[in-house]
């Protein structure tokens, strides 16, 4: 026999061995091993017997070799069959052949859906891939089938906006990745997983989702080789994840990385002679973001070119056509805005085209598709800008309001812009951030046209979304981050209500739009006595659900806790429904909510409550007094208030030796607070205060908003004379009127609990000494015999937390640590603080009954980061939330020696009140202590203006 038939026979034998013995990962399709293995065996036997085209005899070694190989292949095949049978018994659904067929069907259905938008086809495709993944566990194609499932579920989310689909996609992808597959198949799956995680972050805001999305995307780019046709898609999705990280961190370097990744994807396709619409559409959007950030027209011009190229590669009806239209419209609108800032009379061609593209994009999107809201936002932006430009030029100017070529009136104007923004804000399937942006755009368009009633409706829509923005399934840090990105909404909403002459509605918006997390905690602590009497079954459900929600707060929603996340989400949705049911009952309309106007007025009998509202539209003091709710105009802007805050911070941070420069700067701020805020309010309250017949001075509760919340309003005044708030009223603060009302309804503490707890840290590991801390504890014990003191190694977090319920009074003399990014992680430094702080979050979760007073003789205990000012997340509000009716705190760093003097003045007066049986009025004691220190050092306001009182 010649060499070539012999070579074919040897190859047939080797093929038989390979297909019967090789692992699934090498073969790729388990269903193909048997026929190919049998074919190899038949070819080897045909050569052995000289059949057909293989005449002649074979060498002596050939026959025995083929038989031995056949026996080995048969044994391995039999063993594999037994293993498959065992797997089948363990998992009856395990069927690799059927899995391949279902996956093929799913792929075809996804292609069909992309053309037809038939949701039934999409559902079937998800079902196919779900079955394929389930039937292929342990087999080579399982990772590919999971990739298909993640992609299909993600596509259904993009169409319907259902978070359950993203949860399923993420859970399936991460479960498969734990098997630690290798190579390109794993890279493709990680790319889809990264996309699902990024979309879930964009919707919900969980930082761990974003971190895992970026990590998965980076690993996917590493695993998918540059020669693979999947490489550009992998780079593009990684770029999208980086863009989300940029939006969170505002780090320009991250945006540069995103642009580089998507540019690499586009360049890859260019080198191979074709264009991918997805890459160019994404690159267009990223270049717009970078151009807006840097003010670069070069980037925007490139974005326009790239957007046009993307549009050229798609046809109407294709999935990405609407996105390409909208992104190009956004690029053109942005280019006009940048040119408008540099040219006196820029042409409106870009805006005209942007409006037209946006209208075409909207025509491609089904009315219930989530992306329609995104297109509506872009359309509203372009329509607003076009309307403003035409209004500014006027009908007599060239081209004003009309097409320069035809003279026809162009589309554009506030009505069309309002319609688009309003529709986007109300879209039921859009994610919450998109609806928030649309609602704020809606309010801005309305307010800029003096349509304040329309703006009020828009703001009410946005404020109603705030609790959903900070969903219960998120960690506390993520909730704070999301809310911090939307500060100032309530102030603008209240300003619009005041334009319409509705101060009651302004108060309602200020209550609902500020202190969202504070209100959520108060909801859980609502008194259910009246509810139980009226509807016992709803009361039982309320108790069960609030217990579940309270327990769920302590569960960190880490990456794999999908069931925990879903449960918290469902509990939150049921809670909202339950509150609506309860509030529909007679007499319970304001159950677990802000107080009604009647309750507000009744509470003002003890003293006026004054909102200091500063907004870009107007600024006012909204006064709640027994005779009604009214507003007083204030001549202050947000920028001016922010400048004063910065000036105060800079002065307090300076380290001039004698403190003269600091004192001058603080005095200037205090004088400005008097002129701009305090004096107009006192003038408005003149008649009320003249009628004051109680002992001492009249009381005022301040509710400052925005940057004013970080300024010492209570100490407003000029040096010398009577133009000083300290000399005219007794000031207190409250984060919201609801929290004040809650404190007022708390019962008096039991006499046995009035023994104070004094926590004194004169020495703290890794912190400086506090020489006055021990002296303060001794002073408190001297005035209140029996005081329990915890100091040094005894003052641990657990000891303090366990001791607080037994004491109605608590005094803390220790250092604090502040976290400007996550203020709930700020806290008190106890002996074991290196292991764990006593944080704002720890304290706010306490339910201590009716404790009376918390004295925080520490630095910055009533201060938070500027972007969280409206949430009032600091130690003072945390102790108030824990139940303390009165809290004494500080706005900035206090000197140790002054702290001791101040504390002694306060406690001496409080001790006298306790001995005489008089009410414990800590606010009056704080005022008198402040005056005492002011008398000692009148020219150093940084030493005495920091102390304040929170509560009733």
Describe the structure.
- The chain has 952 residues and is an alpha/beta fold.
- 61% of the residues lie in helices and 7% in strands.
- The protein contains 39 helices and 14 strands.
- Strands 7-6-8-12-13-14 form a six-stranded mixed sheet, sandwiched between helices. Strands 3-2-1-4-5 form a five-stranded mixed sheet, sandwiched between helices.
- A hairpin with a 2-residue loop joins strand 2 and strand 3.
- The protein starts with a helix and ends with a strand.
Structural class: alpha/beta
**Largest sheet features:** 6 strands, mixed
Q: Got a strand count? A: 14
- Order of strands side by side in the largest beta sheet? 7-6-8-12-13-14
Overall mean confidence score, pLDDT: 89
The low-pLDDT segments are: 398-409
The amount of beta strand, in percent, is 5-15%
Question: Which helices and strands appear, and what pairs or packs with what?
Answer:
Layout: H1 3-21, H2 24-27, H3 33-49, H4 62-90, H5 96-116, H6 119-135, H7 142-160, H8 163-177, H9 183-204, H10 207-223, H11 231-249, H12 252-271, H13 277-294, H14 297-312, H15 321-340, H16 349-364, H17 371-393, H18 414-425, H19 432-448, H20 452-469, H21 476-484, H22 489-499, H23 503-513, H24 516-524, H25 529-534, H26 536-552, H27 562-583, H28 597-603, E1 608-614, E2 619-625, E3 628-633, H29 638-653, H30 660-684, H31 686-690, E4 699-704, E5 730-733, H32 737-745, E6 757-760, H33 771-783, E7 788-791, H34 797-803, E8 809-813, E9 816-817, E10 827-828, E11 838-839, H35 840-844, E12 853-856, H36 875-881, E13 886-890, H37 896-916, H38 922-936, H39 941-944, E14 947-951
């Amino acid at each position: 026999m010649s060499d070539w038939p012999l070579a074919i026979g040897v190859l047939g034998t080797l093929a038989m061995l390979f297909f019967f013995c090789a692992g699934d990962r090498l073969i790729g399709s388990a269903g193909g091993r048997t026929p190919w293995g049998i074919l190899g065996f038949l070819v080897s036997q045909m050569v052995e017997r000289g059949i057909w085209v293989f005449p002649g005899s074979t060498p002596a070694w050939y026959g025995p070799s083929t038989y031995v190989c056949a026996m080995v292949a048969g044994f391995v095949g039999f063993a594999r069959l037994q293993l498959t049978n065992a797997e089948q018994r363990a998992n009856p659904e395990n069927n690799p052949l059927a899995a391949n067929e279902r996956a093929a069907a799913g792929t075809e259905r996804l292609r069909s859906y992309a053309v037809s938008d038939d949701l039934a086809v999409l559902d079937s495709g998800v079902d196919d891939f779900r079955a394929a993944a389930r039937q292929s566990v342990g087999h080579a194609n399982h990772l590919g089938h999971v990739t298909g499932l993640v992609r299909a579920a993600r596509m259904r989310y993009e169409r319907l906006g259902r978070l359950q689909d993203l949860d399923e996609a993420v859970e399936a992808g991460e479960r498969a990745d734990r098997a630690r597959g290798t190579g390109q198949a794993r890279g493709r799956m990680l790319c889809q997983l990264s996309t699902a995680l990024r979309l879930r972050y964009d919707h919900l805001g969980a930082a761990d989702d974003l971190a895992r999305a970026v990590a998965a995307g980076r690993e996917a780019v590493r695993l998918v080789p540059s020669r693979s046709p999947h490489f550009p898609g992998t780079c593009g999705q990684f770029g999208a994840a980086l863009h989300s990280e940029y939006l969170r961190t505002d780090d320009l370097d991250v945006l540069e990385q995103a642009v580089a990744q998507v540019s690499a994807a586009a360049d890859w396709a260019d080198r191979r002679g074709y264009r991918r619409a997805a890459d160019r559409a994404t690159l267009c959007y990223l270049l717009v973001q970078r151009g807006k950030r840097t003010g670069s027209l070069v980037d925007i011009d490139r974005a326009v070119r790239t957007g046009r190229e993307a549009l050229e590669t798609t046809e109407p009806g294709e999935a990405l056509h609407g996105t390409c239209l909208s992104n190009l419209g956004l690029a053109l609108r942005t280019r006009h805005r940048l040119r408008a800032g540099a040219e006196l009379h820029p042409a409106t061609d870009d805006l005209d085209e942007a409006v037209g593209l946006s209208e075409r994009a909207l025509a491609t999107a089904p009315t219930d598709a989530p992306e329609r809201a995104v297109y509506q936002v872009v359309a509203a932006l372009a329509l607003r800008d076009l309307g403003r430009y035409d209004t500014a030029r006027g009908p007599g100017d060239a081209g004003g309001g009309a097409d320069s070529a035809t003279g026809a009136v162009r589309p554009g104007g506030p009505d069309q812009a309002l319609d688009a923004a309003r529709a986007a804000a109300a879209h039921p399937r859009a994610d919450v951030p998109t609806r928030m942006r649309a609602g704020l755009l809606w309010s801005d368009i309305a307010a800029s046209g003096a349509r304040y009633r329309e703006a009020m409706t828009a703001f009410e829509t946005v404020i109603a979304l705030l609790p959903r923005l900070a969903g219960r399934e998120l960690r506390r840090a993520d909730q704070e981050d999301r809310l911090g990105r939307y500060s100032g909404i309530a102030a603008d909403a209240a300003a619009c209500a005041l334009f319409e002459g509705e101060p009651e509605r302004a108060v309602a918006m200020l209550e609902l739009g500020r202190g969202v997390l504070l209100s959520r905690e108060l909801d859980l602590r609502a008194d259910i006595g009246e509810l139980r009497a009226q509807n016992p079954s709803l009361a039982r459900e309320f108790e069960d659900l609030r217990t579940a929600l309270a327990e769920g707060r302590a569960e960190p929603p880490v990456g794999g806790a999908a069931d925990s996340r879903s449960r918290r989400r469902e509990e939150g949705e049921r809670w909202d429904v339950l509150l609506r049911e309860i509030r529909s009952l007679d007499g319970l309309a304001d159950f677990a909510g802000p107080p009604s106007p009647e309750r507000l007025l009744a509470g003002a009998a003890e003293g006026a409550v004054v909102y200091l509202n500063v907004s870009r539209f107007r600024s006012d003091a909204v006064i709640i007094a027994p005779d009604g709710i009214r507003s007083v105009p204030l001549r202050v802007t947000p920028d001016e208030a922010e400048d004063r805050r910065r000036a105060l911070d800079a002065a307090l941070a300076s380290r001039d030796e004698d403190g003269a420069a600091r004192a001058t700067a603080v005095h200037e701020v205090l004088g400005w607070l008097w002129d701009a805020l305090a004096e107009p309010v006192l003038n408005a309250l003149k008649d009320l205060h003249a009628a004051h017949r109680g002992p001492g001075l009249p009381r005022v509760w301040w509710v400052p908003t925005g940057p004013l919340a970080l300024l010492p309003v209570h100490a407003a005044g000029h040096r010398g004379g009577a133009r000083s708030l300290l000399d005219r009223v007794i000031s207190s603060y409250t984060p919201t009127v609801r929290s004040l009302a809650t404190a007022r309804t708390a019962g008096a503490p039991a006499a046995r609990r009035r023994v104070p707890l004094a926590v004194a840290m004169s020495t703290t590991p890794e912190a400086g000494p506090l020489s006055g801390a021990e002296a303060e504890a001794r002073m408190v014990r001297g005035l209140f015999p029996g005081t329990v003191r915890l100091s040094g190694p005894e003052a641990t977090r657990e000891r303090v937390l366990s001791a607080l319920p037994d004491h109605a009074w608590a005094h803390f003399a220790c250092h604090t640590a502040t976290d400007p990014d996550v203020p709930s992680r700020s806290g008190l430094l106890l002996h074991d603080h290196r292991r764990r702080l006593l944080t704002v979050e720890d304290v706010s979760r306490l339910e201590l009954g009716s404790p009376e007073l918390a004295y925080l003789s520490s630095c910055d205990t009533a201060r938070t980061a500027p972007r969280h000012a409206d949430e009032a997340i600091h130690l003072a509000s945390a102790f108030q939330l824990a139940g303390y009716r009165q809290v004494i705190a500080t706005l900035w760093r206090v000197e140790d020696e002054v702290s001791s003097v101040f504390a002694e003045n306060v406690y001496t007066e409080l001790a006298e009140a306790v001995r005489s049986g008089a009410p414990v009025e800590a606010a009056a004691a704080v005022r008198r202590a402040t005056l005492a220190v002011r008398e000692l050092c009148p020219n150093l306001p940084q030493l005495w203006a920091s102390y304040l009182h929170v509560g009733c």
